[in-house]
Amino acid sequence: MARLIFTQQLSRFTEVAEVETTADNLRDALETAFQVNPSLRGYILDEQNDLRFHVVVFIDGKRVMQRSGLRNSLGSNSQVYVLQALSGG
Questions:
Q1: What is the 3-state secondary structure (H, E, C) of the chain?
Q2: Please, what are the averages of pLDDT over each run of 10 residues along the chain (89 residues)?
Q3: Residues 32, 47: Cα–Cα separation, whole Å
Q4: pTM
Q5: What pLDDT does 85 receive?
Q6: What angle (nearest 5°) sits at the alpha carbon of residue 43, between those of residues 41 and 45?
């Protein structure tokens, strides 16, 4: 099963920091995680259900660049890291 891992910065929104899923794409995997951690939805997705600018997702070590759709494929052993983006100068 694919595994979604939420970094420590997101712990205030998670009851479970890691969620396993049989989803074959990022959108469906996130929906599984939102069922377990409902308060994550508003922090991860905006009103159009796109990734918010302060959120970064990596699938198997590759950054997800597209913020809408989120139909990126997941393998049966994929690791998806969801983290808060850092900004500053």
A1: CEEEEECHHHHHHCCCCEEEECCCEHHHHHHHHHHHCCCHHHHHECCCCCECCCEEEEECCEECCCCCCCCCECCCCCEEEEEECCCCC
A2: 92 86 98 94 95 96 96 97 78
A3: 18
A4: 0.91
A5: 81
A6: 60
